Amino acid sequence: MLNIVINGQGPEPPDTVNLSGGSIRLIEIMKRISKEKDVNLYVISSKSMCNTFMKNGVKANYKISPFFLKNSSRFSSSLLDSVFRTIQASLSSLPAKKGILYSPSDFLWDTFPAFFWKLRKRKMKWILCIFLVVPNLFKDYTLSFDKKNKVSVPTPQRLLYFLSQQFTISWGKHWADQILVLNNLDKEYLVFNKGVDESKVNVVNGGVDYDHINSLKTDVKLYEGVFLGRFHPQKGIFDLIKIWKLICEKKPNAKLCIIGSGSASMTEKVTAAITENGLSDNVVLVGSKTADEKFLLLKSSGIFLCPSHYESFAIVIAEAMACGLPVVAYDLPIYKDLYRENISKVPLGDLKQFADVTLNFLSNDELRRIFGLAGQKFVERYDWDKVAKQEMLLIEGLEK
User: Which CATH fold would you assign to the domain 2-207+383-399?
Assistant: First the structure.
């Protein structure tokens, strides 16, 4: 019997609808792996994350990590609470004497307990997920491309994330049995920049629930364009608003649907930017949506816009392609391997070309149909069932 122990002691998510791509991937992979007859899955995490796993059909033995602070719903308290839970998890006994330790992210609250357990139980195998290598430490994604100074002093949060990831990479280099990344560029960074043994770094994929997405039907077209993602400058949310303004100059009634959410301050900035650009009648903020609601909104739109400045996989692109939408995105290096010529790419920061390419799609129904069908066929390779089988083979290989 194969034992897999997943640890997750991070801060409570603001909601369980707007999950990160990494959390979605973990749930979809483990939902399928947990159904294997010869697998015992153990999840050690917060109450809300355990509940989210259970609601999504992950069959596991759950150990809920206790809260130590009364105001854990506030981010600062939640963050401090995660530190206490990480320490407690590290010092507690393992629920299994042998098997796989699985760290679903490179954050210290996910990696430190596994690292500490690995030191105590050398026969346990450790799988470490690094799904977003920290981008340029001195790049400020809040700056517009039309500003000359694009370099900034790192914020405390950015610096802390960078330093914590360096700890994780160092531990993984010496003690992890497998390190999982989402693209070849991240693998090259770990191998050539950090000296990690190439044989222990594996490129895995994000995915989509392909058959289920295709089963959802709608004939209604509510929006010309759609965006899906959290409200963060890295996702190009402010570029998106400027791009849509350029589109509306030539297509005044064009409607854009924005699916997602962010902090209260970031949401306020996004709302203000929409108003300042005179787009109150052209942009609709629908908030976070459940999977089916999200997919139906995608299918109710004409084209998907993804102006992210930095990505490791961009699972939202795969979801949009599965819905049959053509995709316009910035020309990020990782897309060459992941999506090839099945998305339309423009130079990073070129808002005018982004708008022009989008307008070209919106004015040509046949082009949208052909591009959408080609992308839909291509992205079937990222079906969660296929991705989970590949990962299960990798896990089983560690046990031999």
Answer: Rossmann fold (3.40.50)
| Distance (Å) of CA 292 to CA 7, 28, 46 | 28, 15, 25
Cα 254 to Cα 256: distance, rounded to the nearest angstrom: 7
Cβ neighbourhood burial of 22 (10 Å; 0-12, 13-18, 19+): buried
DSSP 189: I
How far is 227 from 134, CA to CA, in rounded Å?
Answer: 24
Tokens of 95: 């629920």
Instruction: Please tell me the distance from the alpha carbon of residue 138 to that of residue 152, in angstroms, as a whole number.
Output: 5
The residue that leads in pLDDT, 122 or 172, is 172
Q: Exposed/middle/buried for 69, CB within 10 Å: 0-12, 13-18, 19+?
A: middle
Cα of first residue to Cα of last residue in the chain, in angstroms, is 13
Alpha carbon distance 380, 356 (integer Å): 29
* Residue 396 pLDDT > 80: yes
Compute the C-alpha angle 50/26/4, nearest 5°. Answer: 75
Distance in angstroms (rounded) separating the CA atoms of residues 54 and 60: 8
DSSP lists the bridge partners of residue 147 as: none
On whether the CB atoms of residues 242 and 222 are closer than 8 A, the answer is: no
CA-based radius of gyration for the chain: 21
Two domains, one topology: 2-207+383-399 and 210-381: yes
Contact 346, 246 (CB under 8 A): no
Q: Which CATH architecture has domain 210-381?
A: 3-Layer(aba) Sandwich (3.40)
Give CA–CA dist 63/113, Å, rounded: 14
Could you report the per-residue pLDDT of 214-244, keeping only the tens digit for each?
Answer: 999 998 999 999 999 999 888 999 999 999 9
Span of 75-89, 146-160, 330-344 with lowest mean pLDDT: 146-160
Domain segments of the chain: what residues? 2-207+383-399, 210-381
